[in-house]
Design the sequence.
């Protein structure tokens, strides 16, 4: 009797990956030499399953290298900025990432800024859940788990981005540059919804690389990243 075909090993991890950093214009902060770029952020997951207990964690900071205008760097293999275990999770499951950039200086406080941002986001998580649920017209878990799931995914991303982006105001002087003038003020929020740990909604195990633009302090940077199932 022919043996049954072997099944692929299940995915156990979702990764948020850095692939490429490009400096289109370095910063004009007055320091001599190249920009020392750092990346980091805050992330959360499972708001549809554990809204009361959803917390925001920090990833980074990581040194992405030194750059002057025209410089770029590929990360191959990709650098894993953040990751989540998939075992014993409830699905559908939403994962949200908020990516920040800083140009390191002698008084680098980027790690403190990331933690303050995460603390502020955690404190305001209940308001975030309410905003998304109201916009969906139902409980967020029910919305994702029905035919609305596909259509609401972009809405989830945009609303969470708007709410978490607004939390910059809670961090206040940290992000605005009063304490550390080298943190880029724009925060980029990205979200993915997994219905199953086996693949994304298009059937693939990786999302298309997304280019994120950071503009501040006279600098112009582009960062390319994506999510993968492993």
Sequence:
């Amino acid at each position: 009797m022919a043996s049954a075909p072997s099944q692929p090993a299940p995915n156990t991890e979702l990764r948020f990956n850095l692939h490429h950093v490009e400096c289109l214009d370095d910063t004009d902060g007055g320091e001599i030499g190249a920009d020392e770029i750092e990346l980091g952020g805050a992330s959360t997951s499972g708001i549809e399953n554990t809204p009361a207990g959803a917390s925001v964690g920090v990833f980074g900071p990581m040194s992405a290298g030194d750059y002057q205008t025209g410089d770029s760097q590929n990360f191959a293999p990709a650098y894993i900025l953040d990751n989540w275990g998939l075992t014993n999770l409830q699905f559908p499951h939403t994962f949200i990432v908020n990516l920040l950039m800083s140009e390191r200086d002698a008084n680098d406080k980027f790690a403190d800024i990331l933690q303050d941002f995460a603390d502020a986001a955690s404190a305001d998580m209940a308001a975030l859940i309410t905003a998304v649920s109201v916009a969906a017209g139902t409980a967020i878990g029910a919305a994702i788990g029905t035919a609305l799931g596909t259509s609401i995914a972009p809405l989830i991303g945009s609303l969470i981005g708007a709410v978490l982006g607004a939390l910059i105001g809670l961090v206040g002087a940290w992000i605005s540059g009063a304490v550390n003038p080298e943190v880029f003020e724009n925060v980029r929020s990205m979200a993915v919804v997994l219905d199953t740990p086996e693949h994304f909604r298009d059937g693939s195990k990786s999302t298309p690389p997304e280019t994120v633009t950071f503009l501040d302090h006279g600098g112009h940077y582009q960062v390319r990243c994506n999510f993968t199932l492993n």
Observations:
- The mean pLDDT is 76.
- The CA atoms of residues 58 and 222 lie 21 Å apart.
